[in-house]
Amino acid sequence: MSSFRTHITTSSFLGVAYGGVGIAMNVPITSAVIGGGLCSLAGMLPDLDSDSGIPVREITNVAAAVTPILMLDRFAAMGLGHEQMILAAGIVYLTMRFGVARVFNNYTVHRGMWHSVPAACIAAILGFMICSCHSVSLQWYKAGAVFLGFMSHLVLRSEEHTSELQSHLNL
């Protein structure tokens, strides 16, 4: 069975490769590093609905800290002043930290809908919306990182199911 460590290791390796490919394709280094980090973190996203506390706690803590930072440009574009941006970032943090975990715990089943390709697309679209920047192509680059990391989790799970099926058929 693929463990939390296997998922994060795989998505982190893919994140480094994704960032490297981005740099090779003239993506700014900072955007490539952010893309690589998003890919790494997105490998844990399907486990938001986990019954175990570790994935949910780790994902929500990191997402709660990173999401407001990624939204600072969007807050500035909305015309918010410095103190208003701090307040908005605090609200986003609290919503992510406490609201998202509660929603997933109460309304999802582990390895249900959240372990699917449509959920990967939803996560990528959310990544696109959260990662505002001056270039739409960089937003798509970062959304692609989220999609790749998310899909790495699903591929590891499908490999596991294939092995289980093969072992049952060989009995």
Description:
Helix 1 runs antiparallel to helix 2 (29-42), helix 1 packs antiparallel against helix 7 and helix 3 (53-70) packs antiparallel against helix 5 (82-107). With 171 residues, the protein is an all-alpha fold. The chain contains 7 helices and no strands. The protein is globular. The two termini are 19 Å apart. The protein is 78% helix and 0% strand. The model has no long low-confidence stretch (mean pLDDT 85).
- Mean pLDDT level: 85
Helix count, per DSSP? 7
Classify the beta-strand content into a percent band: under 5%
- Largest sheet at a glance? none
Output the structural class.
mainly alpha
Overall, the morphology is globular
End-to-end separation: 19 Å
The amount of helix comes to over 70%
Runs in which pLDDT lies below 50 for 5 or more consecutive residues are: none
Overall number of strands? 0
Radius of gyration, in Å, reads 17 Å
H/E series, N to C? HHHHHHH
